Amino acid sequence: MASGVKPRVKVPKKAAAGEAVTIKTLISHKMESGQRKDKEGNVIPRSIINRFTCEFNGAMVIDVTMEPAISTNPYVEFEATVPEAGDFKFTWYDDDGSVYDESKSIKIA
Amino acid sequence: MEFSRRETLAMGLGAAVLTALPFRVIAAAEDKIAEFTGGADLADTGVELTAPEIAENGNTVPISVNAPGATAILVLATGNPTPGVATFNFGPGAASQSASTRIRLAGTQDVVAVAKLADGSFAKASAAVKVTIGGCGG
Amino acid sequence: MKYKALTAIAVALSLPMAAFADADDDTLVVNDEITMVTKAAAPAHVADVLDEVMSGWHFRSDETQALQKDDFENPAMVFVDQAIEAWETVDGSEGKSCASCHDDVETSMKGVRAVYPKWNEQAGELRTMAMQINDCRENQMGAKKWKYTGGDMAAMEALISVQSRGMPVNVAIDGPVQAIWEKGKEMYYTRTGQLELSCANCHEDSYGMMIRADHLSQGQINGFPTYRLKNAKLNTVHARFKGCVRDTRAETYKPGSDDFIALELYVASRGNGLSVEGPSVRN
Q1: How far apart, in Å, are the Cα atoms of C140 and each of C93, C127, C146, C256?
Q2: Does residue C151 sit at the A interface (CB-CB below 8 Å)?
């Protein structure tokens, strides 16, 4: 597990049934591109978050494939429909095999 | 200034080397698009790409894509060492087929978005982003 | 503005740049809650040279400015989260964390950032926040000092700064610190390096102009520590000073040195009246 990796997610606490909500996500990660060299001139190996997914009550909202051109601390913002109360599940996949997840529940107002 | 035949040839060779790199990079982007579309035609409408005209720093450039009804949007940076940026796949839970993220650009270049639309056709949008070089290294 | 011909040509060549050649008039409201004072009448001690003091926020592009308007968008908050953990973490021989003495950071650290650097009567010295943090670590916690400009220090400074956001910077420049302040002022106006540039040449005489593609600000430090897009991390005041002095092609002072402490006091005082913004976002 890479050090200092911490997901952050912003989801409204409640929504009207069928409402579209904006979701913001960010995970602290270096996103080492594999293009940089260290002081000795050796290429620093690539180490990135290569995939991010969000599901709501088991249904896919968004599935993002990420390449080294995504900035440090990857940020993704998107919109989800909230048909009923339930849980958003967020998952990030690291090159090193680590998987980080986070979930947030939302109520119907 | 006069050039001998040999010098002229050498210059031509140098120019060929100079231009070869960008060609290769753009070809790599085209390969990525072909892989995504299977070589289908690209419409000019159906996908929007929002990016700043000038980025203060290439390390963190905010971009947004939006393609109503699309199932997936591919984003490429044609001037990066490798053109891939991200592919957004939208599921049934998505309220819109739009997303925003922050990307790295190695220099001034075109950013391209290709969307696979609901009817299976493809659309492309591009945005030129100027990446500035700072005055103060510190 | 006194553009030289070359500068004029450079500006003409980069026309879109001209659109933001001066400080803009946008308003910075963070989280729809904290309205920042980003322009203020110059404090009395700089009123002879400036009418108005301005946050560096005004000199950035709309995209960069937007990152500071919402704590979720602000990448610096990742480091603030890390510092919240550090605040609660016991370290050192005394079995204490920051929280052991200072309890809730939100109440105990409110207003602190606004008045630093500050005279410490007991120690008989002017202290920056970094010095105070390290004094706590060494003498209260029995823990190892943090590197003056390192990641742990920058994150803790950011966490402390957050508790004063929106409050006016108000560092004292008289009494026991007056001589140090005078020294800082002298440094600010002294040309250094092969390029023979003083702080004032760029940040007082030329703010609003372009230095290559960079938009020169007044060099205010009310937004520090600051997350820079160029290195994607928090940057401390002394690290930034070091970068500036190096850019004049001079031997730089050491972060944490008496020289930089004096300069920090003087530069901080030039921003008296501006809101504490840290951690800000800059390019």
Answers
A1: 9, 16, 14, 20
A2: no
Rounded mean pLDDT, C241-256: 95
Closest by CA to C240, choosing from C213, C267, C258, C215, is: C267
Query: CB of B95 within 8 A of CB of B66?
Result: no
Measure in Å the smallest separation between the Cα of B59 and chain A Cα atoms: 6
Contacts of C19-27 with C-beta under 8 Å, sequence gap 24+, read: C20/C59, C20/C61, C20/C215, C21/C208, C21/C209, C21/C210, C21/C215, C22/C208, C23/C54, C23/C58, C23/C59, C23/C207, C23/C208, C23/C217, C24/C58, C25/C58, C26/C58, C26/C62, C26/C65
Is C136 among the residues known to form the active site?
A: no
* Contact check, Cβ <8 Å, C16/B133: no
> Is residue C207 predicted with pLDDT exceeding 60?
yes
Closest-CA residue of C relative to B133 is: C213
Taking only the tens place, the pLDDT of each residue in C6-45 is: 444 444 444 344 444 578 889 999 999 999 999 999 999 9
Tokens 């023979």 sit on residue: C196
Q: How far is the CA of B112 from the CAs of A99, B76, B82, B123, in angstroms?
A: 29, 5, 13, 11
Options C98, C199, C202, C244, the catalytic residue:
C244
Q: What is the token pair recorded at C6?
A: 């070359």
Task: List the end-to-end C-alpha distance of chain C, in Å, as a whole number.
Answer: 24
How do beta strands C233-235 and C125-127 pair?
unpaired
Read off the tokens for B99: 């997303």
| Cis bond upstream, residue C16 (ω within 30) | no
Domain boundaries, given as residue ranges, for chain B: 5-131
| Integer Cα distance of A36 and A34 in angstroms | 6
CATH class of B5-131: mainly beta
What's the gap in Å between the CA of C104 and the closest CA on chain B? 34
Instruction: Give the residue among A73, A92, A101, A11 at the shortest CA–CA distance from B95.
Output: A11
Quick one: average pLDDT of C163-190?
98
| Chain C residues close to A48, C-beta within 8 Å | none
Q: Which residues from C are below 8 Å from B56, CB to CB? A: 60-61, 63-64, 229, 283
